[in-house]
Amino acid sequence: MLDRGFREARMVTHQQLAAATRIGMLTRERDTASACAQALHELAEVLPVDAATLLAIDPITGSHVQVAGIGYTAVASEALAAEFVSTPWYANVVRQPLPPSIAEDAEDTADGGQRFRNGWFYAERVRPAGFRDALTGALRQHGRLVGLITLSVEGPDRYDSEARHLLASVLPALGALADPTARTGDLYDLPADADASLVTAEGTIDLPGRSHALALDDHEFASLVAAFMGSEGLRLRFLWPVGRRWYRMVLRRCTTGSPRERQAVLVSGTPTELPYGLSPRELEVLTRAARGQTNQAIAQALFLSPRTVHSHIEHLLRKTGCASRAEATALCVRDGLLRPTSDDVEHFAETGAFTGRGARSRR
Question: What is the pLDDT of residues 271-282, one digit of tens each?
Fold first, then answer.
């Protein structure tokens, strides 16, 4: 929705309304990097812009990362942001409902200090770069601060109240575009009751509107995820116990978004009952059978007798309605009826298009 003050402003043009609408529609795009770049160009069509930068806050490190820019290199923009957030003027940007501009910097800073135009950041960073006016807005998503946008221009006093209202009207859309976690669940069509988290090399990121993936608190499960991250797998489907409940888990290597997002693994889990009335032990036996292990090898791995393993195989065949061990293992792989360990990842992880046929054979 457009900011109310912007809608009621008397100087709004049809071109500005159209640009704001197009920016809002960009939130539907899957290619967020291109959408962010397009959003900046849309703003440059209706506002004076000699340079612009759209920055996202890295949820792991807290640093600002440029996701799109006009006239700003990523290195320069991120270095400036790192300095700017340490100034009292950053607090003004975060607390004001309208993005403050240098031209209308009439309010005191949050700590009662000097105006931005008279401060060191303007004198040492903005003015030497050739900019006399700038407009900065804070980006939020679900109440979280997720980034910044700054528009800069060489001429003085170019960003008036109308410009501030226009930028304010598209801040929600820009926040949705910049937030690296905002639409991950939507992109992969997660069930409504699924918990989900993104796992990166640096740590775990919980997703807006989703509960933390509880299985990640299990050390054995975390080891399995680490093995998946180190593999060539794109998806792994299986069953996992969390407390007294079972979850249908899916690990997906992210294949869209920024380079950082594409290095992450989406972990999602949906509460379920064990299919076909299988017992936890029968599920373990079925998983090892799907690996091609003999009854003797399964017995040694699970500290059972070969006779007990044979009984488990008979029971799971009857429960699943399968006529043979081969049919049962095919069902196991096809439907993700697995209770794998980290050693099983290379065998069961899907490495090609998700056709529903299970993992690529490694036999």
Answer: 999 999 999 999
Whether the predicted pLDDT of 363 surpasses 50: no
pLDDT one-digit tens code per residue, 25-38: 998 887 888 999 99
Angle at 337 between CA 246 and CA 323, to 5 degrees: 135
Which pLDDT tens digit goes with each residue over 104-149?
765 444 445 568 888 899 999 999 999 999 999 999 987 888 899 9
> Which residues, including other chains, have CB under 8 Å from residue 241's CB and lie 6 or more apart?
247, 280
Q: Which of 92, 94, 138 is nearest to 115 (CA)?
A: 92
Superfamily for 4-178? GAF domain (3.30.450.40)
Provide the CATH topology of domain 274-363: Arc Repressor Mutant, subunit A (1.10.10)
Kindly list the domain boundaries of the chain, sorted by start residue. Answer: 4-178, 183-225+237-273, 274-363
In whole angstroms, give the CA distance from residue 339 to residue 344: 9
